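the two lines:
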Amino acid sequence: MQVTSGPDRGQKESLGITVRKKDDLSEWYTQTVLKAELADYSSSGKGFMVIRPNGYEIWELIRDFFDSEIKKTGHRNAYFPTLIPKSLLEKESEHFAGFNPEVFWVSKAGADELADPLAVRPTSETIIHDAIRNWIRSWRDLPLLLNVWNSVLRAEIKSTKPFLRSTEFLWQEGHTSHSTEEEAAKEVMDILILYKRIMEELAAFPVLIGKKSDREKFVGAVYTTTLEAMMPDGKALQMGTSHQLGQNFSKPFEIRFLGENGEMRYVWQTSWGTSWRIIGSLVMIHGDDKGLVVPPRLAPVQVVIIPILFSKKGSAEKVLQRCSEIQGVLQKTGVRAQIDSRENYTPGWKFNEWEMKGVPLRIELGPRDLEKDVVVFVRRDNGSKTILPVGEASAGAVELLSQIQENLWSKAKEQFESSIHDVSSYAELVGVIERTGGFVRSFWCGSPKCEIDVKEKTGADIRAIPFDQPDNVGESKCIVCGEPAKNLVYFARAY
Amino acid sequence: MQVTSGPDRGQKESLGITVRKKDDLSEWYTQTVLKAELADYSSSGKGFMVIRPNGYEIWELIRDFFDSEIKKTGHRNAYFPTLIPKSLLEKESEHFAGFNPEVFWVSKAGADELADPLAVRPTSETIIHDAIRNWIRSWRDLPLLLNVWNSVLRAEIKSTKPFLRSTEFLWQEGHTSHSTEEEAAKEVMDILILYKRIMEELAAFPVLIGKKSDREKFVGAVYTTTLEAMMPDGKALQMGTSHQLGQNFSKPFEIRFLGENGEMRYVWQTSWGTSWRIIGSLVMIHGDDKGLVVPPRLAPVQVVIIPILFSKKGSAEKVLQRCSEIQGVLQKTGVRAQIDSRENYTPGWKFNEWEMKGVPLRIELGPRDLEKDVVVFVRRDNGSKTILPVGEASAGAVELLSQIQENLWSKAKEQFESSIHDVSSYAELVGVIERTGGFVRSFWCGSPKCEIDVKEKTGADIRAIPFDQPDNVGESKCIVCGEPAKNLVYFARAY
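prediction for all of em together
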């Protein structure tokens, strides 16, 4: 789909996406992200990106939802330093070993060499635990439920992709301390379920939830829970993680509290994070050959109103007046509506541009619609037209947006379910991963040896061990070694 | 004011502020910030601090106000990388020379030495200008009005103080590009006036506005406008700056656009920022010997409801029930209300704690108030009591909060005005700066030589050159050299 430039752009340029999604997903994705102006590359080096207003405003909607939900359950926001002394980062040794290869190190402040190098935060467990040691004294100070909105930096060695794998990314990181293991475990799950709601209810795509294997868990955690989405090329994408840290950090950081019975105990902790990857996933999952398709609940602009103007000056004014009235009515109902009254661009050019930018619903309004007192809606997801009396514009928009949200969800769910394969032999597993990708659901004995074998043969790893295990696990065999199975798991290649 | 610990805290500790504000402002300030749990020191090194939820929630209120105001005028948020290549930072040479001594330098990513070192952003002009060069093509892409909420890092050599002077601080930085110099100049002023509204209407203290001298302007700017507050110790504090960058960055960064007449021109740019210093200033200005006093419009908790419980179980339940009803009514009116129903703490202990934390209004509610169907309000700013019928609780709270906001503003304004001194000789200027501090308003010839002379003799510099100059400038003499004056200016020592 090649869209030529507007009549007055000075130079011809390709505004549309020049490849089809199914022909070259990677190129299609990059073009969509850049041309819909969600993000741009930056000069800071490999994997650094700029998030532009069209992308940032999606992030703001995700943030506002999550922020208000966690505040309802007593979580509070705070801010901790960007730079973490090496000596602190080393305190939990597995954690340090895990992050060390991808840390950016600050060695100088102005002209002065630093005695203790400072890490640009790859995650904030250590700096936060160091601070809260002094804030927690007795059981009354618990639970301490903190959240931070910031960015973290991890030098990427793998190939990078805007939103999906970038050197710096925006995220939130939650850090909580509890008086019992059970309460921490409940927190881990509560947050996981809240993350699932963001994906399902806002971003309109399904995820698999479960635990990570020990090999894949967060460095320093007792266990890690995860949400895994499936991209159209058959590769999984980890959408968020919620970790039970147990007392792995509270012991080296000496975070203790006076219990109700007067004894000193170490706190039980969790940490959890989700990032702007959600934006990348929704592009991947919902986009089409015309470009971006944003689910209405995450669309900064939900309805774009395009006046169809002809040269008759009188009618143009009336059309613009009506557009403005409709915008007002929509905004009053809480619909995010914008008018595109730019001159020197044809309506057709504008239709293409807003379609590429993924705005869920378009209103076209010309002199004839004015005469008939109607509004013409066009859906981005399926192109269907709906003509409604002006008086029903607002209720109609709300209903159509809800239908679009629902339709995107249904299509994504169908795609997701068809990506899950049950196999009965190791050879079949290898075949599926190599031919079609997607999730391969099969039994596993629990040994890292078999997990590594699959990884080495296919590049796939265990994305999740579902919380609900089938009754027949006991009678089943590991797909790799044939020994008695411990779990049903999902294998997949991943971004 | 020494407050002993609650009955069940396990150990006695000093919860109140142990020095008087007028006896030792610096110690009083530090204790207030730490004990009201606005902030804490961190282990990241000199001048790094943690902002705790009580402080961060004030920042959220400032952010929400400013964010929604700039969005009304078409500004949009974005995000740019934390790390900036040295080669980019060097592009505007004065800018680089100015920031270089306080930059944190990243030299390694994992184990790899970087060929081009990366600066942890001290401000984002360079990385932003580098990116937007590709976004601006014609006059239709202008104005480009961007804003970023992030943190910046500047290695501090001066003595540091939480919120007032810290190595890393949260702020917003606006970066705009315009097609004409006039439009950029208007943007500089519009933002300055919006900043002024934050200080006056939200934080309830006055500021002086004007231009900086060339010596004090932002490195790389054509001119810098500023807002200057006055602290109780007679030292000024710069609360925000808004810069006309002219074409100083657009030329080296080659940010050009096709004008309406077909010619290529360089854009005119502005940048502007304000930070969490606002929090430090309001502590300094409004606080008293009991601790923090937060102006209602920036108070995360505006009303704390404290049940007065006695052992009679039946009445306790009714009291708590009534507290909860009142909280509901207040929240419905948009008042941020919280109940402190913690057991094992006496009402008196709670009164002291919430006073120290600066909550503007307290409701005390016991069985006798229940019988009489009244609510007792106590104001934080002046300790006065107001008893109102329960039915008037909500209207009463709104009215009292508005009175408190007004009272804090009036007191701050009076203090501010009394800090301004007119002097008739250089000796008098030196005397005032050394004895009382505050602003010294006097005439200046415009030469850096005289400016430096004052700085060297007194430590004071020119904080602002007011936009409105008096008529008699032409007939006046420089306070330092006696040559004809160019401007009336304000000298002060500063944080």
